[in-house]
Amino acid sequence: MKLYKCSNCKGEKPREEFFKNGARSLGIGSLCKVCDSKKQKERNRKKYFATYKGGNKEKIQAKEAVRYAVRVGKIKKELCSKCKIIDVEAHHYKGYEKENWFEIMWLCHKHHMQMHSKY
Question: CB of 22 within 8 A of CB of 15?
């Protein structure tokens, strides 16, 4: 059985471990399936965040302002206001405008998602 070298992980693997690619001389891609999948996930993640950042600038600025305020000690995290769990997120219940950045309610992820599903 002939082995082919992945250009990413440098592992030698059988032909079945590579996706087909008719444009290449060997008829297979240069990355093994595992490396190709990892690269594709990373490309998708970058594309998602680029799209997300473009449409949610105010939201990102509000989140970053709260994160910074917590880090420097201006704001102290509290327990979830619904279930009293320690692991909390800031819910900007008045919106993401600059004047409302610190008008937040501390909620666990579950309750934070429930609040957003109400809108």
Answer: no
pLDDT in tens, 54-83: 788 898 899 999 999 999 999 999 999 999
Q: Which residue has the tokens 């327990």?
A: 79
Return the closest-CA partner of residue 96 out of 88, 107, 85, 104.
104
Rounded Cα–Cα distance for residues 31 and 10 (Å): 9
Q: Identify the pLDDT of residue 54.
A: 79
Helix axes 57-72, 33-55, angle to 10 degrees: 90
3-state helix, strand, coil in the chain (%, to 5): 45, 15, 40
pLDDT digits (tens, 9 = 90+) for 14-36: 999 999 999 999 999 999 999 99
Element (H, E) at 72: helix 57-72
